[in-house]
Amino acid sequence: MGKLTVYREDTAAFTAVSNQFIDCYMTDANDAQLKVYLYLLRTLQAGRETDISDMADRFNHTEKDIVRALKYWEKQGLLALEYDPGKNLSAIRLLSPSAGTVSQPCKAAMPAASVHPADIVPLPAAVEPVSSIPEKPSYSADDLKAFRSNEETEQLLFIVEQYIGKPLSVTEVRTVLFIYDSLQFSSDLIDYLVQYCVGKDKKSFRYIEKVALEWAENHITTPLQAKEFACRYDKNVYTIMRALGKNSDPTPKELTYINRWTKEWGFTLPVIETACERTVLAVDKHRFAYADSILASWNRSHVHTPEDIHTADKAYHKNKPAQTRSSVLNNQFNQFPQRDYDFDALEKELLSN
Hints:
Layout: H1 19-25, H2 31-46, H3 52-59, H4 63-76, E1 79-83, E2 89-94, E3 120-125, H5 141-149, H6 151-164, H7 170-182, H8 187-199, H9 205-217, H10 223-232, H11 235-243, H12 252-264, H13 269-282, H14 287-300, H15 306-333, H16 343-352
Antiparallel strand pairs: 1-2, 2-3
Helix pairs in contact: 2-4, 3-4, 6-8, 7-9, 8-9, 11-13, 13-14
């Protein structure tokens, strides 16, 4: 199919979007963040005011989602939030995308931006500014009650309880509120966070909070980014890759093999490494498939520990010599047509000569 020409027929007014934004910022943003930023551009072009409630109603998001989207773009360096003396959000200053701090290859230092009245969207709303990695607040009983009464967060807490397998304590609810409110994780990202930690047999909220802080420091904002980050820094994955003689990042197919070995079949790292060692000694190509065949055999035979492997090896070597002798005898004698001899007649013939 040939290339397509894109053109416009009408002469209607339009809102310009920077190529820098499309090339460098748009990929990592989620749905709410994109809607908010594009709507701010549209609002600026039209020269009209808006507010958080208006944007929440327009895009069918909660006001918390809108606030988190604004703070996300502030972190990216695409806008600055301005507050009145009462610490209420009073205006948004849109900055040039070229001045942002997006990840490579578009990363650049942020120069001082000049303020122009036309670059300010008035936006009255009550919201507190936060630092990039805030300290954990001491949430009050009223804060927790409001958090639980919200329809979205009520559903989120229910999902977390299903993963953990018990009702959450007040301290644990405070941790979820901190991740949601202060770290600005979306419900989807918190869902994946808890699922990820539970999948590693880590149900401690101290551990969950530690992982959340690490993700926040690395600007993880979507479940897809978290998944890629987790795979990239999972020590077990790279230990297995090295055991198979590979120094590159795992491909999706290779990760499928590793996840099957570790999660579906539940093999420990020492057992997988043993299978990898035997694979490297046996083949130069298709090592993942070969190691998979070894582990599949062990899984069928309920071999799941180094002791199980030792027992299976002893049984194999015990039976192997008998099988080998039988095979040798078959190779020496049974490969030729067999004849019936009358040994008495042969003896008489020899004696008569």
